[in-house]
Amino acid sequence: MKIPHNVREIIRMALEEDIGNGDITTSLLIPEDQESRALIMAKGNFVVAGLPFVKEVFAMISAGARFTIFINDGLKVTKGDMIAEVYGKTRALLAGERVGLNILQRLSGIATLTNMFAEKVIGLNARIVDTRKTTPGLRFMEKYAVRIGGGSNHRFGLFDGILIKDNHIEAVGSITEALRLAGEGHHLAKVEVEVENLNDLKEAVEGGADIVMLDNMSVENMKEAVKIARGIQRNVIIEASGNVTLNNVREIAETGVDLISIGALTHSATAADISMKIVR
Question: Is the whole model's pTM more than 0.90, yes or no?
């Protein structure tokens, strides 16, 4: 995977934040020419995600570091599994340890949670998608982790999709007017409208929305919304959003929606438990 320049810059800044003017402890204890290998190990059960970025961490610190992957991104590991190995200058391994593990633990946590949701809807048509509720600066990596976990990406940012939300509608005056303005100003991107009730749903679909987002609707209202929307425009894409949990996601998928967006995938995932051990 080619890592974008801006993501490489985030990694560089993370290293700079941690290392600063130098690793005092390591410089005092470890000879400059000493070499070691370090094993990255699972301390729990999870889906691995983020290894290309961890490899980049060590490559930035030392061009001579060798990074070997034993278990690829997207695979499940259990406690005690060896995920990867890094060989190089001992000082470089210790300098990159925390940043590398922070990235791997964070992204593996996201992939694991995404996978749990994706497995709940197996056999149904609904896809699990993420949102823009990501850690500032880490969106590329976190959305990568969602894909690795079996989910799909919603729009990456404000620039690559038209999503008319409640505040837009309030500022413009109505869903119909918002759709008119969007249609006149942009002819390529699909237009999505967030709706909170069945009347707004009808207005959005009749107004030509390509996608409607059912915001915080009950399961019963979702079922009715799908029926109404398909009756007006058979090919309209229907997204469910809000208060989605592992306990109710399958019931939501069974309503017939096409997408289920879950902010928790990226804002509430628990980091995976991973360690790195020097072995000489």
Answer: yes
